[in-house]
What we know:
- Residues 1-32 form the signal peptide.
- 9% of the residues lie in helices and 45% in strands.
- It is mostly beta strands.
- It starts with 12 loop residues before the first helix and ends in a 5-residue tail after the last strand.
Amino acid sequence: xxxxxxxxxxxxxxxxxxxxxxxxxxxxxxxxxxxxxxxxxxxxxxxxxxxxxxxxxxxxxxxxxxxxxxxxxxxxxxxxxxxxxxxxxxxxxxxxxxxxxxxxxxxxxxxxxxxxxxxxxxxxxxxxxxxxxxxxxxxxxxxxxxxxxxxxxxxxxxxxxxxxxxxxxxxxxx
Length: 174
């Protein structure tokens, strides 16, 4: 079952599909695919645009890029996790604050994929932590294109704690 292209569905079929893909990546035989990679990085306030990126897949054929600007407080520890499906035709990129809700005020954000097209993308104002659940942004606060999940200027309420992308290899990569 494939998720509708470019659709956001906080609790429906697309979310189930993304969860199943993540589980499949996590449970696959180690020799069949690249190990999921999780890298910690600092989200730094100050209003300056920052970028963090990682590659995954055979020959690092997929890239996930997180670009943002934020204000208030001090640095926060965030993580970017990447994994590929057994056939290397899908990859996931999750960017989040492991402690749950960020206290930073984001003025902009964009999570972009290279080498693939997004089949599912979602942004959250609060990441699951302990007994609390993810809280998705309202649909009008962000947009999903073939290659990015980003804020909508004028509609985004400055709260961001998690981004999830499931993408499929671009036709040129197949």
